[in-house]
Amino acid sequence: MSDTFGPFELPIRVEAADIDELGHVNNVTYLRWVQDAAVAHWTAMAPSEELARLFWIVLRHEIDYLHPTRLEDRIAARTWVGTASRVRFERHTEIVRVADGRVLARARTLWCPIDAATRKPTAVSAEVRARFSVPATSTPAET
Fold first, then answer.
1. Which CA distances in Å does 41 have to 31, 35, 72, 73?
2. How far is CA 97 from CA 13, 47, 75, 100, in A?
3. Beta bridge mates, 93
4. 8: which of 21, 41, 63, 109 fits an S-S bond (Cβ 3.0–4.6 Å)?
């Protein structure tokens, strides 16, 4: 877990099904982990009324694969929200090997809040913005 403005951390277990024919985690699996971390962060930190009111959709994913992840690796996804506009929230995620802190992959995703009733983009409450948004110059320390 994390404080409001620090990275949220989700432990991840690498499964045999995640491994491709090259002996490392398949690229599609990283995308699933990025989404899992975002959902876990939202679920852990959002006010209950906002959990019921909002859905989030992805507008864009960018992933940089830096080092291979293997079956025996213990890893975690660290995620935090960067800049935000009325209906666009930038989320950063790093997949990190726990043993040495090495960043294995980095992702940047743009998310859009959707009203659960209307299924249309909507602004978030001031409370959500305060809990999740950080100034553009604030990011966790590089590893």
1. 16, 10, 25, 22
2. 11, 31, 4, 6
3. 79, 107
4. 41
